[in-house]
Design goal:
The complex is a heterodimer. By secondary structure, chain A is an alpha+beta fold. Chain A has 8 helices and 9 strands. Chain A has a 5-stranded mixed β-sheet. In chain A, helix 4 links the parallel strand 1 and strand 2. Chain B has one domain: fumarase, CATH 3.20.130. Chain B is built from 7 helices and 9 strands, in the order E-H-E-H-E-E-E-H-E-H-E-H-E-E-H-H. In chain B, helix 3 packs parallel to helix 4. The longest helix of chain B is centred in the last third of the chain and has 11 residues. The chains are: A alpha+beta, B alpha/beta. The interface between A and B is large, with 58 and 53 residues.
């Protein structure tokens, strides 16, 4: 399958706008589930406002949240897909910049030292583009994540040691949720990376945070850990917006990697309640959009 | 748990009568302010031509579009999506905003810290919580962008919005030392040991 780069550019523009406007169905279901179980009257009011906002955004064709985020494109290349990688990256960047200019969207991206904003949502190494491979034939998938800064600013890595065991991982996650309080716009999806190297551990936490609600870690130990942690963090009573209540997290998600005999790394990256993502799949039949 | 429907600016006596748990709806002028705006005002000696005395500021950097100047859009900007950002990053600017500019109301999400709480107590101010991430709804409360200053910092300019029925917002920090964030945080930390015990962690 040969990839049409003009179509990639157009789709990457569309993905950014779609992600900002329509929340994935699993997140909407997550809201319904939390709202049904919430016992604090104030928290129910806050959740009610969030749920109302989702429908106002759709009715007025507006962004759910004003934060256009750090733009991230996750590319998955299947078998027999013919594409020049450099050109593919350039097409993604053009699509991101065009969404910003043509919608228009707030460019939330600045040079990290001068703080100059080029008003393109692009800059050095931004949009972040991550490439992975799959064994699906004739298929290219691009997922767009506009990662909000309120949750991204609360990201942590701890290089625990083996002698601290899995207790260090559990304690760290609970303490991160406590430290975040209302700053991450709870209810959140708490992404936890366990194992790997420092860089891999943080990447895993992000992958966990953007995983659809209702999915589970493929490793049984990871699946057990995420289930236990979901129960534990929701006992804390941080609640929606940090104003108290049962609904602190939609879920805790865990992703694992093997690690070194001397290491026990854990990372946390959260997704706010505007848990936005959009995806497009390119096949010989054309482009289909999803989440 | 009273509700206050007010037109800005407000007086010190007004905000001192508000308590945590009360709700407030604002009408009239609302100023938008952000990290860069305050860094430039307080660290780099910039000045604004706006009079913020008795007014409300909201922690925001809106999505706007350029339009032709008209009565409805005097600045040539129309609001696209106006939302609210996390306040905690701007903690150190609360006291200078109140002392230097007479601001009485700060609107944001996630709350502010002890320094802000004591500034509210000393100088007469409140923090109003808006639901973060609910920007599509918030935008429907904004009638117009009336004026803009320090626009070289765009989108972190100093925005002057005209709002109607902006709320209800929750008084989550008041001028009497009350902070819902402190209360929730204290309660949550008290539950830490039980949460860890449920995970089989000994503390």
């Amino acid at each position: 399958m040969k990839v049409d780069l003009k179509q990639v550019e157009e789709t990457c523009k569309e993905l950014y706008i779609r992600a900002l406007k329509v929340l994935p169905p699993d997140v909407k279901q997550g809201f319904a589930r939390l709202d049904a179980a919430e016992t604090s009257p104030l928290a129910k009011k806050v959740l009610g406002t969030m749920i109302k906002n989702i429908s106002v955004a759709e009715a007025t064709d507006n962004l759910t949240c004003q934060d256009t985020g750090v733009p991230i494109y996750n590319v998955t290349i299947g078998r027999s897909v013919a594409v020049d990688g450099v050109d593919l990256e350039a097409a993604i960047v053009r699509g991101c910049a065009r969404a910003t200019a043509e919608h228009p969207l707030r460019s939330s991206v600045v040079h990290p030292i001068t703080r100059v904003n080029d008003h393109t949502s692009c800059g050095i190494r931004i949009p972040a583009i991550h490439v992975t491979f799959s064994d699906r034939p004739e298929e290219l998938t691009i997922q767009m994540i506009p990662k909000g800064s309120g949750s991204e600013n609360n990201s942590w890595l701890r290089m625990a040691v083996p002698a601290e065991g899995v207790d260090a991982i559990k304690t760290f996650v609970v303490d991160c949720v406590l430290d975040a309080g209302g700053k991450t716009c709870p209810p959140t999806i708490v992404g936890v990376g366990v194992g790997g190297s420092a860089d891999l551990c943080v990447s895993l936490a992000k992958l966990a945070a953007i995983r659809p609600l209702g999915t589970r870690c493929e490793d049984p130990e990871g699946a057990k850990l995420e289930q236990d942690l979901t129960g534990a963090v929701n006992q804390l009573g941080v609640g929606p917006q940090g104003l108290g209540g049962d609904s602190t997290a939609f879920a805790v998600h865990v992703e694992l990697a093997a690690t070194h005999i001397t290491m026990n790394p854990v990372a946390v990256n959260m997704q706010c309640h505007a848990a936005r993502r959009a995806s497009a799949t390119f096949t010989p039949q054309g482009v289909t959009y999803g989440f | 748990m009273a509700h206050h429907d007010v037109v800005t600016p407000v007086t010190e006596a007004q905000v001192r009568s508000w308590r945590t748990g009360d709700t407030v709806t604002l009408n009239g002028t609302l100023f938008g302010i952000r990290d860069a705006t305050q860094i430039h005002l307080f660290d780099r000696g910039r000045k604004t031509r706006f009079d913020l005395k008795g007014h409300a500021v909201i922690h925001t950097a809106p999505n706007v579009k350029k339009v032709e100047r008209s009565k409805a859009h005097p600045t040539g900007y129309a609001p696209v999506c106006v939302g609210t950002t996390t306040s905690a990053r701007m903690e150190r600017f609360t006291r200078p905003l109140m002392q230097g500019y007479g601001v009485r109301i700060i609107i944001g999400k996630g709350g502010l810290g002890e320094g802000s709480l004591s500034a509210f107590k000393d100088l007469g101010g409140v923090y109003l919580a808006i639901v973060g991430g609910a920007a599509a709804l918030e935008t429907t409360w904004v009638e117009a962008i009336e004026d803009v200053d320090l626009d070289d910092l765009n989108p972190e300019s100093l925005w002057k919005f005209r709002v109607k029925g902006f709320g209800p917002l929750l008084v989550s920090m008041d001028s009497h030392g009350g902070s819902l964030y402190t209360e929730v945080n204290r309660a949550a930390r008290a539950r830490r040991a039980a949460a860890l015990a449920s995970l089989g962690v000994k503390t």
